[in-house]
Amino acid sequence: MPAFLRIIALLLGLVLLIVPSLLAGAAQPAAAATSTLPAPKTAAPATSAASAALLDVNSGCFLVEVGGDERRPMASTTKIMTALVVLEHCALGETVTVPREAVGVEGSSIYLFEGEEITVGTLLYALLLSSANDAAVALACHTAGSVSTFADMMNERAAALGLADTHFTNPHGLFDEAHYTTAKELALITAAALQNETFAKIVATPRYSAPQNGTDATRLFLNHNRLLRTYEGAVGVKTGFTKKSGRCLVSAAEKNGLTLVAVTLNDPNDWRDHAALFDWGFAEYEGFTPLLSPLTLPVVGGTQGTVSLIPGAPFTLTLPTDHAEITVTAELPRFLFAGVEAGESVGQLVWRMNGEIIGTVELKTATEVPKARLHRTFFEKLKDILIK
User: Fold this and answer.
1) pLDDT tens per residue, range 240-257
2) What pTM value is reported for the model?
């Protein structure tokens, strides 16, 4: 074999040995961290509630649960699910013609009258700020045709969330033996509802006014959630009370990169208890969202010398407020060979704390990098001659 052929064969062999080892360094992307949280440094505050739960929305972990799985009536906190179902099926600008069933409903009311025309959006503010039971029935009938059919939709949504101890018979929360939830499941319903931007906007609104159609009057809806005025970082969500359920409260607050949802059922000291739960939760934990800087990789034999890398979806971790130092490393090959496709996974960023992986983000190529053509064909050269 001629010497130059032996050299070419040797080089090809080296490439075959080196490339797999380089690519092996680009570990496959992994899920971002475990959802198990480190134990808190201090005990959670006691509450006066029959059932209580404090949910960290970022991790999906419950920081506090007392009787969290016990089925209980939830009064007007029911309306969190009512609003979620309506928002998922109706536009805010839709006109609702108030049916007879929505007139004179027991409990809190904005005194709708039969045949009145009012928008879905206005009724949602009445529902969530003034806790209007007549608004709940009007929305249910508009969305599903009847209260019973709407209750079926609420139960279907609960099932979709994986809830096994929640059941609705009405959209307003007036007492019914078959109408119940748990503190933990009500927190999960609320976390899902807060993902809806319109819901989150409404429950964070202190007051809202709307003209009463067909009259010169204006309806004013005041938010019953005192924490919006008294607790820094509070963002909603709903109060409730009946004689059989007692005082029920669902609230949410944002601070230190965390969103916490607190639920108490049958709690005579709910305002104090929610503030104490939030103070404790934010003192124990904080959110960590990594900053993702632009990255590039060299490309060998391509039409361009480098390719930009796009990080996958960012993540947020819940960590103790006194957590150890966090480090990040890029697990990538030293270079890529041309022929790379856009969106090709090439490695990952890995965050570690105390030597353990706490999160990863996949890295993909932003664009394709075709192979460079080193030698032009006879026909390409002929084309150039003919064009000239």
Assistant:
1) 999 999 999 999 999 999
2) 0.81
Which numeric CATH code is attached to 51-284? 3.40.710.10
Q: How confident is the model at residue 14 (pLDDT cuts 50, 70, 90)?
A: very low
Annotated catalytic, 41? no
Q: How many CA atoms lie within 13 A of 302 on its CB side?
A: 19
Give 187-199 as a DSSP string: HHHHHHHHTSHHH
Domain boundaries, the chain: 51-284, 289-388
Whether 131 sits among the annotated catalytic residues: the reply is yes
Options 59, 131, 245, 251, the catalytic residue = 131
What CATH class is the domain 289-388?
Answer: mainly beta
Give the active site residue among 76, 108, 130, 245: 76
Among residues 51, 59, 79, 238, the one annotated as catalytic is 79
CA dihedral 207, 210, 216, 217 (to 10 degrees): -40
Q: Is 79 a catalytic residue?
A: yes
